[in-house]
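Give me structure tokens for this 183-residue protein.
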Amino acid sequence: MKCLLIVDLQNDFCPGGTLAVEGGDTIVSTINALIPKFDLVIASKDWHPEQTVHFEKWPVHCVRDTFGAAFHPDLQTNQIQQVFLKGTENKNDGYSAFEATNINLESFLRDKGVQSLYIAGLATDFCVKASAIDASDKGFSTFVIRDATKAVNLQPGDDEKAYQAMIVAGCTLIEAQTIVASL
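Here you go.
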């Protein structure tokens, strides 16, 4: 079974949000076009408490039950079958979707018979990278949909460094059009 994981496509990571990724909203239409191509669609969310050590590194963002923590309003969420909440504890950054505290992502995927995990979302150089590397380390065939991710790029080229780290970890980079044409 092939599964699409949408990582943190939340308001606070999109333009106007407190930790906006430049162009973060531009991948929504690409992701929406991909959703019908998968039997299983899941998503992760940063779901931080109001106070966490994570906010010593980053601006306050994605505080649970706020507008900033909600999915981008244009994301077609009706086919998302499960949401994995991460960064929920005071001392947990929660970059990887595999750090979700509400449901164990690895067990969920194995119970569903998922062998191939396709990853899209925000941000390439943090949560997408961490989720992809963890997926590959856990034995899933992991595909990162390059044109369905955007990076923070604290330093120029962080996105390319992240892609290289994912390749080294065993992930495959793929373009959305290839998926649309083949699945």
